[in-house]
Design a protein that fits this description.
Blueprint (H helix, E strand, L loop, with lengths): L1 H19 L18 H7 L24 E5 L8 H4 L3 E5 L7 E2 L2 E5 L4 E11 L2 E11 L2 E8 L5 H9 L2 E8 L5 H14 L1 H6 L2 E5 L4 H12 L12 E5 L4 H7 L1 H7 L4 E4 L4 H6 L5 H7 L4 E4 L8 H11 L4 H24 L7 H13 L1 H22 L6 H25 L6 H11 L2 H36 L1 H9 L5 H11 L6 H6 L1 H10 L1
Parallel strand pairs: 7-8, 7-9, 9-10, 10-11
Antiparallel strand pairs: 1-4, 2-3, 2-5, 5-6, 11-12
Amino acid sequence: MKRLFLAFAGGLLLTSLVMAQSPDSPSVPEATILPAASPDRAAESVSPEKEPLRIRPQAEYDEFIAPGQETVFDAMSSELLSEEEFGPPVYWWDFGDGSQVQWGGKVRHTFADPGRYEVKLSVRQGQLRESRIFSVKVYSQKMVLVRDSEVPVEGLIERAGDRGIWLRTLSFQKSETGIAADETFQRRLQENVGFLQEAEMILFYTRSATAFQNFAQWWQKISPESQISFRQKQLVQISEGSLDQIAKLLQPVFVILDPGSILLTRPEALDLLFQNPTETITDDLQERAIEFKILDARMSTWLPLSRLTTYFVSHGISQNVIFLLLAVPFVTFVIAFFRQFVGLRTFGVFAPLMLTLSFILLGLEFGFLVFALVLVVSYLIRLLFDHVELLYIPRVSLLLSVLALSFFLVLGLALYFDTSINLTLAIFPMLVMSTISEKFLSAQTEGGLRTALIVAGETVLVSLIGFVFVEWNWMETRILSVPEIILLPILATVWLGRFTGLRLSEYFKFSALFGDDTKEE
């Protein structure tokens, strides 16, 4: 009780002393406002934060590791701390295959089975310790996948690696000009010729057989020392198209490469090919009801033109050249149909034919640029001829000379925009297209600029229709797989030659007269 009373009395005494202080002498000091520090002084007052001390383990090893092969794993490139301050580093490895931990910055290890292994590298230096896990794949075989650019590749490499297959993918993209695509793709093949020689299987996952055909043409061009023997390799074409048509397209390829056989199947068989890349794969395909076809020496054709094109391709003639020759009857039929039956006007038959073939060789964008340049230069030369009197032959010679020089501008633009056009092969169709300028100049002289432009527009329209028709994937496949189909446009052209009725445009032109005849009756 006495202690309680003394505490209470002490509290009252302290309170009275605080209340007795005057306001002029406060017990808590007032805040002092300091002048704003300059940016330089502020920067000096703040010390930068020190980065935390870290060890960054790094490992180097071979890209291809085979089962039973001794492989060196090197961690000496790891980022470490100062040995004077923290002492020497200590390394140890856990290879994830049930083997004992190995110590050292550079060790040797042998994996018994193929597959994916999570290798853990740990580094200790002083009191600091860091670990890092590397995904290491042990491959039992190599495989090459040639694919369209639309085919996703991310999951394929992982699925193949999990089954002990080192899968290397090569992209094939068919550009507007097939020749440009040939050169780009064949350059990729040449860069990977060593891997192709060691691969047990070569897969082609494309919509058409174009990539396989280009592969065979590349094989013909390389030196005999670099050529690959396909007797011990499996060749597979995966496609969603007609296997029968693709088999016909690959007949020249079979003659060139001379493999035991070529397997044609569907995309559903891809996992089976990863699981069982052996000759017994056909049994698994039959069990799972996956469509397939075997192309071998027994699948030869008796059709004469097909045998002839196969002979030409197998002896080094590009399939693009064969396609251009076979496409001519179809293009000429389209031109004859629109001139004779529809009633469109063109600069003859040769000009739209050359324009269509130029579109095939140069591509639409580059071909239109060249055609527009031909018309512009022709118009400017016509303006010049209004002030200078020249005879017709020297006039045309001057026009073609100026056009040839103006193509330097086109070549410069092609280089500037880094186009994929083969400029060496582009010169010939460009010069052939310049012959249209003579037709345009004659039409401008006879009917004026308006008439010449209308005829030029109808010529381009007919050429575009012919281009779309022969570049149609279905039609292109039929032309190359069954060349005898060119008899159809030839017979149709004969029928057009015997047609004596009115053109469609004439029905519209004389529709008023037909109406008057109906009223009189």
